[in-house]
UniProtKB/TrEMBL annotation:
Superkingdom field: Bacteria
Coiled coil (residue ranges): none
Organism: Natronomicrosphaera hydrolytica
Keyword set, alphabetical order: Cell membrane, Membrane, Transmembrane, Transmembrane helix
Chief localization: membrane
Protein name: Lysylphosphatidylglycerol synthase transmembrane domain-containing protein
Amino acid sequence: MQRQLSNLLRLALALAGLAFIAWSLTWSDQLVLPVGTTLPDGSTLAAAERVRLIDGEPGRAGDRVVVQLPSELGAGETMSLDAERVGGGPADVQYERGVVSTLAGARWSLVVAGVLLVGTLPFLQTARWLMLLRSQGLDPGMTKAFRLTLVGQFFNFCMPGMTGGDLVKAYYAAKGSGRRGAAVMSVVFDRVAGLLSIILLAGLVGLLLLDDPMVRSLTLVVWLVMLALVVFAMGYFSQRFRRWVGIDWLQRRLGEGSVLTRIDQAALAYRSQPGAVLGAVMVSLPAHLAQMLATALAGWALGIDLSLGVLLVVLPIVYFVGSLPITYQGLGVMEGVAFALLLGLPAAGGEAGAGATVNQIVGMLLLGRLYLLVYGLLGSVYVLRGGMHLFPQDEAMADDETPSEQTLAAR
């Protein structure tokens, strides 16, 4: 019963996210009439008003556009405007594309370039995970690790958040392994390294753009979060702190064979491998940079006019929030954060108007998810074939959760 309620809650959150996106979108092409626009009845607008475009092409010389006025301005009435007045200076009529127009006008060469960039992610993610596995004496080989990385990517589209595939990945990494705790914690630290690097990317880029007030504020928050994570990690791995907060006492009460104790021991194994953890974070930086560049290309393909620097600060934060298991693929959550950070920013190209619209932001994040889905679908091939665990040759081994004394001495 509890599992059914949990599934219903996840479904409700996913539907709520989709509803939020659908409500945010502008489905039809619209024009924004500025203050002072003369209406058919001779009155003038006291405030800017959005009206639906029903005919004509904005900006075309010698043409006129026809718009549908809302009921409060004249039920059923239309008005005609000079098409050349649309999209000019800030005092002119502004054009906002609907969903169909936004996608139809996309520069698909940039979209394809984004797909190719994201293609580097599985290889870099595999290298990161192998680094952590090998630091604990586990080496399944590049082929098996790469295969399970793609499987995890596939299952990311079957569970809440953008990291649900880690559960499946951890299961098959531990299955048949003689050291299940170490295998599972390699997946956990793999995810931690990824999250640390995506925040670090935003912080590093932000340091180059401190003259921008918005970026400066975000950069400060990012580095404060990084500081908090470092302090937490130092405390967790500190013997004195662990005694002070009672972690060691709790372990003694639970016993050596408890699940929590074995997981904790596997995590502590990385205390003697700081180089592997740091290396995993460093390997993640180019992976996340490629993903953010691909998403930025998707935004530019849809007409977003924001600088690469601003996008490389904001997008990592958007993806970081999306990785939390709140809604399916972060639907609604990622969009809400992106709206809060990107809407209202001026265009980087110096043109009048905002640098991004709601439709463009939604389309950019949608394409970003589709990029990942392309490679996630490759993982479905291995799901259908079966035999996904890393260590089939070790199924008869005892479940020894900690490295042997000989292994530790060899290190």
